[in-house]
Amino acid sequence: MRSVLIIDDEEDIREVAALALEATAGWTVFTAGSGIEGIAVATKEQPDAVLMDVMMPGVDGPTTFRNMQQNPQVAHIPVILLTAKVQGVDQRRFASLGVAAVLFKPFDPLTLARQISDALGWKEDLPI
């Protein structure tokens, strides 16, 4: 069974995404409210992927991703950024970081698992 870590400073987003992934895909979901907490959870739980908000107070998503890349315990975990920024320049900047994918807010809870699976090349059948 897949596991995903959601890192987002907004509790509502974490809850909606977690419920969506658990209900539609049956995945195990871990959550964290900050990049620092997220790296600690990723180190302990070793999720199959991380879904991370770009804009967070303190340490933002791109900085958290760079910190993860320098940590051998979590550098192998694919990261998908979740952002409300849809400008082309932002998309190119995020893609140049080396993240697995960029998904956009607001997301559709019913298709979130499919979007993550497609982005990461996960081939298992999803219920939807």
TrEMBL record:
Keywords: Phosphoprotein. GO terms for biological process: phosphorelay signal transduction system. It comes from the Bacteria. The keyword Phosphoprotein applies. Residues 3-120 form the Response regulatory domain. The modification 4-aspartylphosphate is found at residue 53. PANTHER family: CHEY SUBFAMILY, STRESS RESPONSE REGULATOR PROTEIN 1. This is Response regulator. It comes from Edaphobacter dinghuensis. The lineage of its organism: Bacteria, Pseudomonadati, Acidobacteriota, Terriglobia, Terriglobales.
